[in-house]
Amino acid sequence: MIIVTGATGPLNGATVDHLLERMPASEIAVVVRDVAKGRRFGDLGIEVRYGDYADAASLPAAFDGADQLLLVSASDPAADAVALHRTAIDAAVSAGVGRILYTSHQGAALDTPFGPGRDHAATEQLLADSGLAWTSLRNGFYAHTVSWLTGPWRETGVMAGPADGPVSWTSRDDEAEAAAIIIASNGAYEGPTTLTAGSAPTLDDLAVMASEIVGRPISRVVVDDEDWVATQIAAGRPEMMARFTLGMYRAAREGFFAGVDPLLGTLLGREPQSVRVALEAAPVH
Ligand SMILES: NC(=O)c1ccc[n+]([C@@H]2O[C@H](COP(=O)([O-])OP(=O)(O)OC[C@H]3O[C@@H](n4cnc5c(N)ncnc54)[C@H](OP(=O)(O)O)[C@@H]3O)[C@@H](O)[C@H]2O)c1
Fold first, then answer.
1. What's the CA gap between 133 and 127, in Å, rounded?
2. 6 lines ligand 1 (CB under 6 A)
3. C-alpha of residue 72 to centroid of ligand 1, in Å
4. Which end of the chain is more exposed for a tag (fewer CB within 10 A), N or C?
5. Ligand 1 proximity of 53 Cβ (cutoff 6 Å)
6. 246 CA to middle of ligand 1, Å?
């Protein structure tokens, strides 16, 4: 039995859809915080169970019988993600789960300036200490969030922001499909497993790409870190969120997102989607 948490989100929801291409619905169960949100899975013949990492008592029944358990990383920025993950991992150990797969992030490290990367590293340590078999799906940055870093370039003609570095922007759909392939491999991937697109462009590179897309020059402007935070606050953004994004620039600058790994393309049997697709779809602000 494959048990999937976070299936009401786009990543693990798509992973379930890809699992269904590889196994019958009777071999899959989803664990959801709101059973009504899981209705589409029930309609597909998938068992829908209630479970919330914040409700430890719900987890023994939720994880019961899992040969493999896909644990979503908790997404609420206000929550203590590592504490929630510890609760889920402890429950998986008690339930005798065969393997945990965890949705981690490329650049997971205790010393990264990007907050979620520190939480992922701490969670991977919990997995390593759990005694269970585990696979950490270190996904590249979602390519569709590229506008976080590039800003309203279509209107302004500039990509203005702090000094950056290479980022291997990766399609979430590709990551979901790869997760299903890894689960269906029944344990062929152990420990940290990096899933990224094939290139890691900088903002300079993205500005060149954007210029080609719109047929006029888009330039890259480097802004001092604190000046950039002040501009963001003046524009009405909460300081906490501005500093969260600054952490991403800093981590990129220090090379945390620079690596590219051929595994994703090998698993998919095709070239992973390029960030250019996401840049072409970048909204007018
Ligand atoms: N690689 C990247 O660039 C990137 C970017 C953003 C996020 N992420 C991570 O990847 C994960 C999955 O991505 P996504 O796009 O599908 O995220 P999402 O839309 O935020 O969905 C998160 C899923 O996790 C569930 N969840 C959250 N807290 C939970 C808890 N305490 N117990 C049980 N389930 C919980 C949510 O349930 P509900 O439907 O009930 O809310 C939802 O199904 C995120 O959770 C985040 O950690 C990665």
1. 8
2. yes
3. 6
4. C
5. yes
6. 21
pLDDT tens digit string along 3-58?
999 999 999 999 999 999 999 999 999 999 999 999 999 999 999 999 999 999 99
User: C-alpha 115: how far from its chain's center?
Assistant: 13
CA dist., res. 167 & res. 256, Å (int): 8
pLDDT digits (tens, 9 = 90+) for 123-139: 999 999 999 999 999 99
Closest CA to 137 of 232, 205, 69, 84: 69
* Rounded alpha-carbon distances, angstroms, from residue 33 to 74, 143, 172, 259: 12, 27, 22, 34
pTM: 0.96
Nearest to 41 by CA among 52, 32, 54: 32
CA torsion sign for 167, 173, 179, 182 is negative
Q: Which atom of ligand 1 is nearest to the CA of 5?
A: 34
User: Which of the following CATH numbers is that of domain 2-139+172-195: 3.40.50.720, 3.10.180.10, 3.90.226.10, 3.90.1230.10?
Assistant: 3.40.50.720
- Note whether 278 and 153 are within 8 A (CB): no
Burial class (CB in 10 A: 0-12, 13-18, 19+), 176: buried
Q: Is the CB of 263 under 6 A from ligand 1?
A: no
